Backbone:
């Protein structure tokens, strides 16, 4: 029998935290191994418990979720954690920073339970998750940060990709899931997964989240497409 996905909950609101615990513990393939109500506690619990997935609220007392994410999953992390950041529309100014800090994915705080559950499973598998609504908001509100600038990567970095791979990258950047990309291109989801894997390998990207940022910063996809 496969070991359950070990989940750590970092959320300062007790009622919401209890809800997450109940939702995840009710799944046969998940186990909540710890809870934290502030940033330092979350950092300590993550280092001690080494969970498979951390569900991280952005707004945390003492140390916000971005800083915790950076320390656990950023460039300097020896064994980067898999972190699912939970955000709300009124804290969108932090989403771009959390992307750069190393988050594996984002969901909105009002996402239904099945999306949260699937989100944890997706990230546990080593995949990345960007809720389309979060992607659209990120692009819309932070166009100036994402669009090509003098210091942005040149589109030449994308020349290693085949035409179909560029097409898939563009659809990823628009927030489409593998299933949606498969439907758009009339190919199988397994073929999409292969394309995504090749894209990440060729561009030396850690995950799908980084691919979204690169697609916009190189101008492959326009902000107002």
Residues:
């Amino acid at each position: 029998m496969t070991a359950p996905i070990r989940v750590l909950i970092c959320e300062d609101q007790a009622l919401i935290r209890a809800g997450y615990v109940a939702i995840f513990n009710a799944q046969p393939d998940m186990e909540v191994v710890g809870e934290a109500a502030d940033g330092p506690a979350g950092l300590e619990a993550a280092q001690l418990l080494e969970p498979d997935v951390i569900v991280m609220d952005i707004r945390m007392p003492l140390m916000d979720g971005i800083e915790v994410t950076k320390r656990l999953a950023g460039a300097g992390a020896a064994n980067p954690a898999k972190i699912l950041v939970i955000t709300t529309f009124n804290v969108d100014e932090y989403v771009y920073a959390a992307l750069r800090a190393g988050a594996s994915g984002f969901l909105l705080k009002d996402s239904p339970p099945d999306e949260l559950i699937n989100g944890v499973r997706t990230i546990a598998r080593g995949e990345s998750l960007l809720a389309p609504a979060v992607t659209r908001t990120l692009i819309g509100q932070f166009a100036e940060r994402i669009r090509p600038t003098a210091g942005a990567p040149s589109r030449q970095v994308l020349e290693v990709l085949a035409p179909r791979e560029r097409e898939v990258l563009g659809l990823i950047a628009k927030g489409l899931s593998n299933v949606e990309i498969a439907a758009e291109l009339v190919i199988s989801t397994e073929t999409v997964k292969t394309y995504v894997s090749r894209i990440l390998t060729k561009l030396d990207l850690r995950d799908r989240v980084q691919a979204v940022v690169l697609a916009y910063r190189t101008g492959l996809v326009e902000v107002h497409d």
About this structure: The longest strand covers residues 30-36. The chain has a mean pLDDT of 83. The two ends are 46 Å apart (CA to CA).
